[in-house]
Amino acid sequence: MLCMRKIYAVGISPSPDLISCKAVELIEKAPVVLIYDTDFPFELEEIIKNKRVIKLKPGFKDPNVIEENIRTLKSIDADWGVFLEIGDPSIRNPLFYHILGGSEDFEIEVIPSISSVTAVFSRLGIHVRHFCMLGSEEEDLLNNLIDKCDLFVIVNIHKEHAGIFKRLKEHGYDVTFIENCCNEKEKITHEYTGSTYWIIAIAKKDLPERTL
């Protein structure tokens, strides 16, 4: 009997126009396609047309949801599949942490793509030498880095952690939000609306040049 052993974490970029040939090839060959049980910043119909699709729930740290995801995967009668991730799946590894909770029951191979972070830089016309990236929940890390890093990229933004942006502004950072980057519903604003999960914030501040 077949059972799921290997999952390709396939980056489908922030927009269907930017999906790599490798990603398209794997999706076409895959016996099963795994996706989030949630909305996406663009329509998936063309990408997963005529495919067997199974939805998994983002569990974050909820052990019950993670266990349900693992049971679902183990019940699939295919020995491999692809998990579709917006942007590049190597950044913060959503499949490993949010879906599987760090479980090592499955072999995971990452198929890289255009990162949502670099896409945001391009859309905002930012040329980057260095930056600090963190989740909106990582307030302690921000406190250690604030006024030391001139450019923050904030991802995994949730309403309950929106206070992080007030703190950045209090320290003189200019904060820009970009929703649904590179898609029809793209929106660039200086205020957090909380209207979608597909949002990245860029916080910039001019700092004095440092000499080593």
Automatic annotation (TrEMBL):
Gene Ontology BP annotations: cobalamin biosynthetic process
Keyword Cytoplasm: no
One Gene Ontology molecular-function label: methyltransferase activity
Pathway(s) it belongs to: Cofactor biosynthesis; adenosylcobalamin biosynthesis
Domain Tetrapyrrole methylase per the UniProt entry, residue ranges: 6-190
Top-level division of the source organism's lineage: Archaea
Transcription as UniProt keyword: no
UniProt KW keywords: Cobalamin biosynthesis
Family annotation (PANTHER family): COBALT-PRECORRIN-2 C(20)-METHYLTRANSFERASE
Name of protein: Tetrapyrrole methylase domain-containing protein
Species of origin: Acidianus ambivalens (Desulfurolobus ambivalens)
Lineage, highest ranks first: Archaea, Thermoproteota, Thermoprotei, Sulfolobales, Sulfolobaceae
